Amino acid sequence: MTLASQSATEPSVFNHLPEGALIEQINRLRKEKNAVILAHNYQIPQIQDLADVTGDSLGLSIEASNTDADIIVFCGVHFMAESAKVLSPDKRVFLPHLGAGCALADSITVESLYEWKARYPDHTVVTYVNSTAEVKAASDICCTSANAVSVVRSLDTDKVLFTPDKNLARWVARQVPEKEIIAYDGVCPTHDVLRQASVDRTRIEYPEAIIIAHPECREDVIAAAHEVCSTTGMLTAVGRYPEAKTFIIATEEAMMHQLRKRYPDKEFVSADGCIGCRLHCPYMKVTGLQDVYFSLADERFEIQLDDDVIEGARKALERMLAVPRDD
Ligand code: 13P
Ligand code: SF4
Predict the structure, then answer these.
(1) b vs e for 181-194, b when ≥16 Cβ sit within 10 Å of the residue's Cβ?
(2) The ligand 1 atom nearest the CA atom of 57
(3) What architecture does CATH give domain 104-188+313-321?
(4) Lesser CB count within 10 Å: N end or C end of the chain?
(5) Is the pLDDT of residue 6 over 50?
(6) Which residues pair with 302 in a beta bridge?
(7) pLDDT tens digits for 33-54?
(8) Nearest ligand to the CA atom of 189
(9) Ligand 2 atom closest to Cα of 283?
(10) CA dist., res. 245 & res. 130, Å (int)
(11) Does domain 2-101+283-305 bear CATH number 3.40.50.10800?
(12) Are strands 267-270 and 246-250 parallel, antiparallel or unpaired?
């Protein structure tokens, strides 16, 4: 039996294929099925390298809304694949691994959002894309880390209820002091674990380094950073420091892969600062090459959403897409 003719429901063979052979099979299937593979910057390097497009949440949403592929295989986490489905409802969207959730997205349910809205009835709800499609559908507008400041500035109201990330909300509030921003009580555990003391410890070895932080980091880390931006924004930010040799990166460790590829002459160091305390998102790391293969071969796991959820979430996402990036 050739590899090409073997059914994908015989995982024992495909789970043990050498990487090169697995990639060959993925390439064959994506061509046969007119599929596009989108990968977030936190995916394992092999998936980032295999993807048609690698990017941040905003960039990947835009790709999903513009693609003419029949199938989108979304290598990221569940809320990202949902956004792709919302923006391309006629496409089939697959998430290769069902364990790819997001602790921050899970911190808010549509019921808890309704409770907050009831407490702040005059406020416009801005919801970070790290949320379920149901929560987006109950929101006025979405934002990502790449456009949160511009989204809030674009509103014709001064009262904002920002959900679910309180660190991002605080960062936006600093940029837009003229608006009242009430923050929901969610955080990303991967970023929220980092403290300025750890960044300082990393800095002892690299005193001249430029510090770049994701806005999901806590206030003290943000205060220590030279640049605060989305994951793809970090790639642009490095270009603003042609003289700098070393950069301390305060975000999920896989981001280092794109940075090192784009800037092979620069040094990138993770801002973890302590032994064993890695900036690691377990949900971003569950997807392996074999999951991408099975996703294409067996057409799994398909994102299914109710029409009214798609309609509501699309309004909030499309409103967001009309606002330019911050960076
Ligand atoms: P970006 O949109 O900046 O890529 O961030 C997504 C994310 O989940 C960060 O934890
Ligand atoms: Fe969610 Fe945090 Fe992982 Fe990003 S890093 S996907 S916010 S848990």
Answers:
(1) bbbbebbbebbbbb
(2) 2
(3) 3-Layer(aba) Sandwich (3.40)
(4) N
(5) no
(6) 94
(7) 999 999 999 999 999 999 999 9
(8) 2
(9) 3
(10) 33
(11) yes
(12) parallel
